[in-house]
DNA sequence: CTCCCTCAGTTTTACGTATAACGGCCTTGT
DNA sequence: ACAAGGCCGTTATACGTAAAACTGAGGGAG
């Protein structure tokens, strides 16, 4: 079934898989063409060259079109302006389409020394924030004929990845959402351009950041408006720049408006981690009557991301505390999970797709030698059901 | 880190093990060179022009060790038994380590025609089931010196991916969790080995399935034990083999035990989709008093996956129905989300990691020409809080 | 008429690796 | 003593592509 459908994917390489090999793919492996011209006007040759199942090469296309391989490369590479006649170019394209030619990526890479491929290093795939970042990066990459291969650092956010073994090809650059110092050093040693997401500047060629200091400011303002003054921090147990920024911004903002940071509990970035940390915070007091509002129990938990916040939600419920009546909870990221739980999470929405897009954009700029300015993307608090007015000590216990 | 591993394709002799390979993990990255290599004189190797910043090649190593490039390839490829003396081999390895040599993957691929790389096609990364599948595949692949590159089909489960443009290198095979027919045809046309996960047999070289018919049997048995007789199906709006299996198994099992499949609502595979579908099912009756148990409202919702089930949870809550007192909900997959919500989901746990591992294993078998038998992995119902006894019409409404 | 320039291609080369084909030694067997 | 092999390497080649260098033919300009 010669179902030939031209996929107009916009890029120049036609992706057709026509298998109608009725054409005379002239020359095969035998390079005997050294003598005179391959007579084009001769008898219709038998299909000789298609050896079983190997993919056609540029030479096959050249033979079919009656030109040399160099011409095929010129035409298909798009650089034939003024070097090849329009008719010849068209016949080359026709032959390529007919044979279902696709250039050998390995050979092209070997020749060019570049791959038009970026590696995206993310800490985990279980947080769909990074899936969205990837989507944004792929979108921009695709528009520039670039590819993105994803490397989920398997051991978690602090492990050293082996990017080169993962991407089974040479790389033009790396976009890293988080990297262990030693892996970063290895990368730098390799001389690869590196764009860091949500990381400190320095030791990389460009950064794309999300304005989490402002995000924390919005969180604190929101909670202060609701009357909260005693706040705890469910922090990520990760030594990473972003999380330091969050902690510092939270501390500074709370101090600036006269609220108290009661305590900070660190835990791994997962629902289970948030559950454990929030339990440690909430269970230390008010055991007798959970509905009481003891002085040493915070009325709001600010969590470093949505996974932790969902864990905090569970912890509160297990301890018999209602959210948001007894305790408010906030997250960061606004992943799908945030609206899947009940109550829905008040959280800081990060423009994940734009992060990925800006990261890829920055990498492209670096590769082209253009100067790149540090990107800082704005964030926005999304108030939902997990935050509410601060419970007043007297009003609650007596119905 | 240049973990050079002897690739033993175990062609026939197959005595691959015992390669006391050089575990040069974390070799001195500090030796970045700073011109380090004092090219040993006296060797036939001539100019070893270290051109500034380019990566060292096999020729550079050869020059440094005073041998030919062929010997370098022999030694580093592990095939030097009886062809190179132990002392020479060691000096080659030392030179490679010193220079930080890493073989050029593109050149190797071009030469060998194989890449030891598999493509894993998954429908979406927002469902962390597939992240776990990926982990399983990577684990097995790594043990065989294979790589796995991930291709998230961006347009959802039915879109046609372009795997070849995605994986920026040639591929040895494909493991596909779901593919549109035209993409599958393209793959077959390319002659690539293909392992399908949770798909129909036929048109591929091997399949790895999860016993979802049995899973549905367990779900129905569980609900029947709790007394449920009127059941609705929140189905995936996807024309895919697995989902057909689920639907048929549910229908057959319900009929076999005398229960009724009240209706089926199809929706996209997401929390929002589940919310919409379950709302359509639950809102059609009992508007006046939600706590009533009208005859046309199901007492249990069986959902095609956990995302849908979480959406159903939300729908019930929004309609004022309690889970599980008023309505029970079940999912499939047992992803992290299942225990993040409240109540926790009763669901069918699928061995995601084993699926990925078995898929990679099957692909390796196909590549080596060994026969592969279809794999079918067992599943297990995990009863949690989202299912409870069927509400009896009289007992509930009057406090 | 010659010189130079453009057109329309072709030859040739290089990318880095793996391996087939080959060749000097040194040990054996007969 | 001399061919027959092990050792221990080397030289040469092919993989498919991109692009630089080269080749003619035709056509004004001087």
Note down, in words, how this protein is organized.
Two copies of one chain form a homodimer. With 399 residues, chain A is of the alpha/beta class. The first copy, chain A, has three domains: 1-103, lambda repressor-like DNA-binding domains (434 Repressor (Amino-terminal Domain), Orthogonal Bundle), CATH 1.10.260.40; 115-208 and 354-359, Rossmann fold (3-Layer(aba) Sandwich); 212-352, Response regulator (Rossmann fold, 3-Layer(aba) Sandwich). Helix content of chain A is 36%, strand content 15%. Chain A has helices at 58-65, 69-76, 86-99, 105-112, 128-143, 163-166, 181-190, 212-225, 241-256, 271-282, 306-318, 336-340, 352-367; strands at residues 117-122, 147-152, 173-176, 194-197, 206-210, 230-236, 260-267, 300-303, 328-333, 346-349, 375-377, 380-382. In chain A, the strands form two sheets. In chain A, strands 2-1-3-4-5-11 form a six-stranded parallel sheet, covered by helices on one side. The first copy, chain A, has a six-stranded mixed sheet with strand order 7-6-8-9-10-12, sandwiched between helices. In chain A, helix 12 links the parallel strand 9 and strand 10. The longest helix of chain A has 16 residues, at 128-143. Chain A starts with 57 loop residues before the first helix and ends in a 17-residue tail after the last strand. The model of chain A is unreliable at 1-52, 156-161 and 394-399 (pLDDT under 50). The interface between A and B is large, with 62 and 58 residues. Chain B binds a DNA duplex (30 and 30 nucleotides) through helix 2 and helix 4.
